[in-house]
Amino acid sequence: MMGYQLCKAQCTVTISSDETLTGISSAGDWGGPDAATCNNFHNLTPPINFDGDITVDYQNSNDDFAIDVNFNTINGGSFFTTSTGSNNSMTVPSGVTVNIDGDVGDPDNNNIGYVVDGTMNWNGTWNGKNSNGFTGSGGGTGGSFDFNQNPSCPDGDCPSFTGVESCEPSGGEFCTNDVVLPITLGSFSAENVFGSVNLNWTTLTEENFEYFSIERSANGYDFKEIAQVPGAGGDSEELRQYSYSDKNPISGTSYYRLRSNDFDGFMETFNAVTVFVDAGTAFTVYPNPASNYLNFDIVRNLETTPVVTLRDLAGKLKFKGHLETANQITLPVDVTNGIYILELIDADFASQQRIIIQR
Question: DSSP assignment of 80-134, as one string?
């Protein structure tokens, strides 16, 4: 689990006063069908993966439950909050990250407010009823909101949630001002067209949207912005089409992704697509056969001064150096006649050709 401890259980804790997750004793506070396993929570080192649902049941009023430790629910596990009292709250403090694979809240709960100063991410539906409120300077990403009444930010300090698919009831201040979805992405594709990568995508809706960032990676993890494409302008619920052509793509398999940016600074990053480009024609070299020097005719823009290597067919390095200003290299005198692999290496691509040295 990559360093995560696993608690495989359905856990229920009853709250009758202000409480923290790490403050729940192992002396029977946890209930439910897996109470014994849940009580073992205190023997685990956070962050923790809960393979099951967690329920916090508020018995009184005006109590707060603080999640003061990083944890995840996995395999669809939800985080339920139920209350028989009123004016209770749940807090995610600053510096704490909670990832819920399932749902949050309870469609039948009563007046539970949420204080999010840390990060709260969820994949399902965040449910609420009876004047739920949100406060805090944190935020997160989520699936959807579904509240019986419009939530509010009573202190005027509302968390910033992005990537939310839907927010109900729509039209209220919370859904329209505090959970603004910059776009709904319809499609996104990448295609190699004669050595350039053509990106095409569509949006189904746009609201308060400013521009796209186009990001590229050679390994699928380290992305770098290569361009920005402005939005078409104005809010829209119609299909809009966008495109961009990368004239200097990475050799081999590369990854492209979109990040939407709205005028309020909210961002949403979408899944990457892959494309393969054969950069074998990235340069030509002459004369070939060669004797004392090689000239390079490079057909793509370079981001750095490229490195040139020369290896024999067994892979042994015979020469390595930077390409000179005149796009020429002088061959070492100790390189004998034969067939060699010449490689040109830039910041984000490498291309090879065979050459013959004949002296």
Answer: EEEESSSSEEEEE-TT-EEEESS-EE-TT--SEEEEESSEEEESSEEEE-SS-BE
Q: What are phi and psi of 37, to 5 degrees?
A: -70, -40
Residue pair 309/342 in contact (Cβ under 8 Å)? The answer is yes
Q: Mark 52-65 as b/e (b = at least 16 C-beta within 10 Å).
A: bbbbbbbeeeebbb
User: Rounded to two decimals, what is the model's pTM?
Assistant: 0.51
For the sheet with 64-66, list strands across it: 19-20, 64-66, 88-92, 112-116, 134-135
| pLDDT band, residue 40 (cuts 50/70/90) | low
* Beta strand 144-147 pairing with 97-100: unpaired
Determine if the peptide bond prior to 46 is cis (ω within 30°): no
Q: What is the pLDDT of residues 210-245, one digit of tens each?
A: 999 999 987 777 788 999 999 988 788 889 999 999
